[in-house]
Amino acid sequence: MLVPVYRAQDGELVVVLVQRGEGGAHGGQLALPGGQRDPGDVDLAATALREAEEEIGLAGDRVELLTALPVVETPDHRLPDRPVPGPAAHPADALAAPGAGDR
């Protein structure tokens, strides 16, 4: 999962979250953009970038990946998560992708 961050005009650091659509295991929850690794993803960073583009319309070339954080095991999720912080180049990059199903 990507941890998209940017600096607002007032200098405040902003973390972009999505609200999951209704239904499913995570319906209505706030979350970082992310999801399951696809066979074509070369690594978890590629998964994070692809999922962020699908979920919030954030193009991978507009993000600078900093590092992969330690794996986070969550009790209600079958797969481990590895957060990848990445500053977004511009706040407009955090706009929701049309039809993504989440907000």
Structural class: alpha+beta
Reported by name, the CATH topology is Nucleoside Triphosphate Pyrophosphohydrolase
Q: What is the C-alpha radius of gyration, as a whole number of Å?
A: 13 Å
Shape: globular
Give the tally of β-strands.
5
Low-pLDDT residue intervals, each spanning 5 or more residues: 93-103
Annotated CATH architecture = Alpha-Beta Complex
As a percent range, the share of helical residues equals 10-25%
Please give the largest β-sheet: 3 strands, mixed
Main CATH class: Alpha Beta
Kindly report the average pLDDT value.
75
How many independent structural domains?
A: 1
- End-to-end Cα distance, whole Å, is 16 Å
Please count the helical segments: 1
Strand order of the largest sheet: 2-1-5
Walk me through this protein's architecture.
By secondary structure, this protein is α+β, with helices and mostly antiparallel strands. The chain has one domain (2-94): Nucleoside Triphosphate Pyrophosphohydrolase, CATH 3.90.79.10. Helices cover 13% and strands 17% of the residues. It is built from one helix and five strands. The strands form two sheets. The protein has a three-stranded mixed β-sheet. Strands 3-4 form a two-stranded antiparallel ribbon. A hairpin with a 5-residue loop joins strand 1 and strand 2 (13-15).
